[in-house]
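anyone seen this seq b4? input:
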Amino acid sequence: MSTLSLLASKSNAGRRGFVVCALLLFLAWAGMPAWASGYHVDSASGNDSRSGLSPAEAWRSLEKVNAKTFQPGDEIVLKRGGRWQGTLQPKGSVTPQKPIRLAAYGEGARPFIDGGAGPAVLIYNQDAWIIEGLEVTNSKDSKQDAMRVWAGPRQPHYRFIRIRDCVAHDAGGSGIHVGEGTYGNYDDVVIENCVSYNNQDSGIFIQGRDFAEVRGLAIRRSVAYGNGWDGIKIYSGRDGVIEYCTAYRNGWKQDARVGIWCWNSENIVIQFCEAYENVTPGVHDGGGFDIDWSCLNCVIQYCYSHDNDGAGYLFMGSGRGFTTRSAVRFNISQNDGRKNDYGGILCYGTLQDSDVYNNVFFFKGAEAGAAIHFRGDKEAGFPSNVRVFNNLAIAADGRAVLRVPAEAAAGNTSFNFNAYFSLSALNMVWGEKEFSDFEAFRKASEQESHGLLADPRLKAAGQGGLGRLPLDAYRLLPDSPCRQAGTEYTLDYGTLDYWGKALRALKKMNIGAEQ
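predicted toks r here
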């Protein structure tokens, strides 16, 4: 019996069921990306007189691609192993439902584009592009980004950019840059599984225009190293995340740069990241992580910072750029603050109404720094109403475990339920006074009514290596005095510890990053 006969023999209910299933399958298929036309480009055997619609009909040059305006659902694919000189600037602006895709086909190395004096890939005033699997660079003296996506002012903003599995390196500007200092109007941006290295400026950079924040941002599972400026950063962004990223040995070209950070942003979470050996040629920054200048509701959590010139965690506002209602929690810093006046964490300037808790800071950096360090000045201001609790601060080589200037001490900042330990003589600075006796410090400062001075009994403090995990060196031994010595747990403190343990069943918290 034929299939049609079988279907005809079914009951009405069966036929209705078949129709419903077929409709659901159709809708599921219709919701998937469907590439309307695929245009192939082959630098070795392509020919611009061909149609481009199959590998055998591939185009050859970037100029041929740049001359065409692509339509919703179109796909531009460059042959793997191919190499091109110049800027790829394809035209077309579509909807997120049917984006245009720029990617690779075949086998072998990523398609390689050298932009020379300009960007290798440029998207300008265009909605809905997916860029995947490319390798891009340009001249080191070009002052141009290798991959640049930017837009002039528009309301609503331009939107939907996806950059995946790309490598950007040795550029005269940043490696991957979405946004621009004057405009930068792109919402709904995701950069993931990318590597950006040895660029003159930053590695990976999403940027909104000042005070006109771009929204819906994510940088995931990406690596930035050896860049002259920053590793990975978001400027003037809102509702975004940087996660599972690594940034190292950045900052060699310019002062005041950081491994991974956000600036003038709202609702940004930096989590599950590692930043190390970032540097500064001057006296500012060169640290691992940063919540910086006029941020609101931003969080750094579950991160590992180590061996940076600057602070492991810079937490700051400056002048009228108040940073408020933000948190640094469940992180680890080891051997940060190697230069200048930094520490495991530095709370600086007009930082207000924010929290630092359940971190571990192992400090043996510059003598002027401290494991937990507060700073400011007349122009930048000083932190106020900052709550510091459940942290573990360890200092080696006679360094300070805590350093708080008088202006910050007078700013309603509170310290409690923290544990301190020095591998040599205790050094705590409160206002103008130094203390080598913990009880004298408590009496003079009226802080740490539940604080501890004790060996925290960690597995191997100071011996953490590369890698955010397993990092067992900072787990508590069974007999640690930090166990259940912290505050009572509330949901406001988050749902995980550094190693991913769920916190909901807790009543009393441990001091430190492990619960």
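The chain has two domains: 33-254, 296-515. Confidence is low (pLDDT under 50) at residues 1-32. kinda curious what u guys think
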